[in-house]
Design a protein that fits this description.
Blueprint: H1 3-16, H2 18-56, E1 61-64, E2 78-81
């Protein structure tokens, strides 16, 4: 089968199944748009949170692992203010 013949068969199939072709294109557009939106939202939130943490400065948080004196946390991690 030649390339031109394959293109002709593909176009004929698209014309014969217009609704299926339209729904396929619509599904692809919705899927790609969803992925782009999720990536944009996560990147925006990442930048926003990074900026907020940088605004606090380098001595705003102290974290340590291991048992805590009070109150206990589920993960064993705690954060406390540098002024405390």
């Amino acid at each position: 089968m030649l390339f031109g013949e394959a293109i002709g068969i593909a176009i004929q199939s698209l014309r014969a199944n217009k609704l299926r072709s339209l729904l396929t294109v619509l599904g692809i557009l919705i899927g790609v748009s969803s992925v782009i939106a999720v990536v944009a939202i996560t990147e925006g939130l990442d930048r926003y949170m990074s900026d907020k943490v940088l605004e606090l400065g380098t001595r705003a948080f102290h974290s340590s692992s291991g048992p805590t004196s009070s109150p206990p946390t589920r993960s064993g991690w705690r954060c406390r203010s540098a002024s405390a």
